[in-house]
Automatic annotation (TrEMBL):
<dbReference type="Pfam" id="PF00483">
    <property type="entry name" value="NTP_transferase"/>
</dbReference>
<feature type="domain" description="Nucleotidyl transferase">
    <location>
        <begin position="9"/>
        <end position="272"/>
    </location>
</feature>
<dbReference type="GO" id="GO:0003983">
    <property type="term" value="F:UTP:glucose-1-phosphate uridylyltransferase activity"/>
</dbReference>
<dbReference type="InterPro" id="IPR005771">
    <property type="entry name" value="GalU_uridylyltTrfase_bac/arc"/>
</dbReference>
<keyword id="KW-0808">Transferase</keyword>
<dbReference type="InterPro" id="IPR029044">
    <property type="entry name" value="Nucleotide-diphossugar_trans"/>
</dbReference>
<protein>
    <recommendedName>
        <fullName>UTP--glucose-1-phosphate uridylyltransferase</fullName>
        <ecNumber>2.7.7.9</ecNumber>
    </recommendedName>
</protein>
<keyword id="KW-0548">Nucleotidyltransferase</keyword>
<comment type="similarity">
    <text>Belongs to the UDPGP type 2 family.</text>
</comment>
<dbReference type="InterPro" id="IPR005835">
    <property type="entry name" value="NTP_transferase_dom"/>
</dbReference>
Length: 308
């Protein structure tokens, strides 16, 4: 196999309208909703940086200016904190602007994830790149993206992250038909089906929001017609690449992820994520968990008192 180019760039699609969180997202991007005291999108960028990707392209849309502001310097705020001697908050404010080299491109209209990824073509060029969806947060203790980059280095082609779900959940995701390799956590993808019925699903392994793409995906996306929902699906392009020869950038592999994933794409999962993160914060956990136990105890008592 020819030398495989290293993965150095990350693409983060962040142009969605966030309709599930209205009215909060009427003027605030859903990516900026806080997980305790840090916006969700910062955790995603930190994950990319931890995997060695310090060149990050954010694909944004209208009303997303606050994302750019968050990753920029805030000189007046920094000066005010410095004057107060508040070094702890000063460091927290500077952290986001020092994370990575940030770039931005606009997705003019919401035409799907495939279209959002294609918007990165000029910036990415002929290099492989990672795609991280802002709705999916991977626990920093689980090095999923690093493992995916390793798989790309070993097998070439493109790599997707897979999680196993119950059969009744496959219809909400892209689902993979898989073949084993010599490694327990890496499989070869032979087919991808977007939101199949449980009866039609080729497996219980679904694609979650992490991808490492060969640059060949751009030519495929250019020719990919709109699919489900009238949108250009990245899944459809990867399905084509799964049948493409390796010397043309083809081949798709999956990393089976059995770690901790937080889905912030709907209200219930978002609330669970906030509670989980607060419960594990050294500066908050003791007081928060004491309050939470008392709240649950009182709530359970109120809910059962009428049945006594």
């Amino acid at each position: 196999m020819a030398d495989i180019a290293p993965v150095l760039k990350a693409v983060v699609p962040a142009a969605g309208l966030g309709t599930r969180f209205l009215p909060a997202t009427k003027a605030t991007p859903k990516e900026m909703l806080p997980i305790v005291d840090k916006p969700a999108i910062q955790y995603v960028v930190e994950e990319a940086v931890d995997a060695g990707l310090t060149d990050v392209l954010m694909v944004t849309g209208r009303s997303k200016r606050s994302i750019e502001d968050h990753f920029d310097r805030a000189y007046e705020l920094e000066e005010a904190l410095r004057a107060k001697g508040d070094d702890e908050r000063l460091a927290a404010v500077r952290e986001s602007s020092d994370l990575a080299i940030m770039h931005y491109v606009r997705q003019g209209e919401p035409r799907g994830l495939g279209h959002a990824v294609h918007c990165a073509r000029q910036h990415v060029g002929d290099e492989p790149f990672a795609v991280l969806l802002g709705d999916d947060m991977i626990d920093a203790r689980d090095q999923l993206l690093k493992r995916m980059i390793e798989a790309r280095g070993q097998y070439g082609g493109s790599v997707v992250a897979l999680m196993e779900v119950a059969p009744d959940q496959v219809s909400s995701y892209g689902c993979a038909a898989i073949e084993a390799t010599d490694e327990d956590d890496i499989v070869r993808i032979t087919d991808l089906v977007e939101k199949p019925s449980p009866e039609e699903a080729p497996s219980n392994w679904i694609i979650i929001g992490r991808y490492v793409c060969d640059p060949a995906v751009f030519d495929v996306l250019e020719k990919t017609p709109p699919g489900r929902g009238g949108e250009i699906q990245l899944t459809d392009a990867l399905r084509t690449l799964a049948d493409t020869p390796a010397d043309a950038g083809g081949g798709v592999y999956g990393v089976k992820f059995r770690g901790r994933r937080y889905d912030t794409g709907n209200k219930m999962e978002y609330l669970r994520t906030v509670v989980q993160f607060a419960s594990e914060r050294p500066d908050l956990s003791a007081e928060f968990m004491e309050w939470l136990r008392e709240f649950v105890r009182d709530h359970d008592g109120a809910g059962t008192s009428g049945n006594a």
